[in-house]
Amino acid sequence: MSGFALVLNPSPGTPGVVILTEGGFRRARAEIASWPGHAATALHDTPSIAKACGVAAVRIKDEAGRFGLGSFKALGGAYAVLQALRHALSLAGVANNASAGDLASARYPEAAKITVTCATDGNHGRSVAWGAQRFGCRCVIFVHETVSQGRRDAISAYGAEIRVVPGTYDDAVRACAEVAEACGWHTVSDTSWPGYTHVPVDVMQGYRVMTAEALEQWGEAPSHVFIQAGVGGVAASVSVQLRSQLPDRPRLIVVEPDRAACLLESARAGAITPVSGALDTLMAGLACGEPSLLAWEELGRAAHAFIAIPDEAAVQAMRDLAQLGIVSGESGAAGFAALIWAANDPAARNALALDAASRVLLFSTEGATDPELYRSLVG
Ligand SMILES: Cc1ncc(COP(=O)(O)O)c(C=O)c1O
Fold first, then answer.
1. Which CATH architecture group holds 5-72+204-378?
2. Does domain 77-189 have CATH number 3.30.390.10?
3. Global confidence as pTM
4. What span, in angstroms and rounded, lies between the C-alpha atoms of 115 and 132?
5. Which residues are 6's β-sheet partners?
6. How far is the CA of 91 from the centre of ligand 1 (A)?
7. Residues 6+ apart with CB under 8 A from 250
8. Which residue among 73, 189, 327 is best mutated to probe the pocket of ligand 1, counting the most ligand atoms within 8 A of its Cβ?
9. Model confidence at 137, in pLDDT bands (50, 70, 90)?
10. Is 61 labeled as catalytic in the residue annotation?
11. CA–CA separation, 137 vs 184, rounded Å?
């Protein structure tokens, strides 16, 4: 199978800016832990995979069950909606620090007049729509034309209006920002750009819960962590949380589709480098051509390596994970696919220092978020 590429970060460990504070994370975690339905997701030990990869252990954090939304994204968008509403109500002089309970019980009728919006390739929009429904505001979600009907339906099930725009996820991000500006809506984006970082910080603080849980559940420090990326927000959140909890930094490996490897290309160039074209990968959640500014600030200095994988490897990984009883969607299985390749490719194995003592942490970041597509690929 061709289409794999590996780029080592030329400057790992370079000191840089703090993109996510510890206080912000403590507040996000306490808030999310108080929501109905909150429970830690499973961390699976997979000795057969460890054996096949010639490493000591492989553990997989399984995000399929997160708040019933099917992916880790439930942690970020919904939390950022809450924060955006609090901020808007405070600016309007309605309430200084409205609680989630107050909003969920419609204590402030003004909240219903607020509109939150975002662009999505599926999972982030679902989280934002879910948050908007829970906290009682209006929601409009922008999707690009190739987002599947199944994913659109999953978003509108939470009462959001869907708007379809031509082009890619990155085009939808721009369309959303323009309409939001014109209409006075609140953009709750999972990606950041110059002048727009406040909300994506809240999104990423929410994501950190996933890594914090995984490290607490394992009890031992991993030596390697593989995490898939679209704009890089979740990879940056993993990176920050590893630094926060572990004295010895594991090697962080960022995994992208070969047709949308904007972080890998940025690492190659030493600066943010968008990739253009149709970005037509099956890994819908990772089909992003422009890195998040904040994510790049973290990953450009802290990731050990960047790997690109072809679609066929992701599909094979979904099937392998299904054999282990783990339901993992097209984007969810990418890190697993990269590990299988790297462990069995002598040059990659060497470059990542994978050996018989390695303890590898992976994240299956989504379940079957498009059940029809999942069935057609896995059977
Ligand atoms: C299942 C899944 N995994 C990983 C990612 C990548 O997240 P990010 O765009 O923050 O890099 C996404 C993004 O939508 C996703 O849906």
1. 3-Layer(aba) Sandwich (3.40)
2. no
3. 0.98
4. 9
5. 307
6. 31
7. 221, 222, 223, 224, 225, 242, 361
8. 73
9. very high
10. no
11. 14
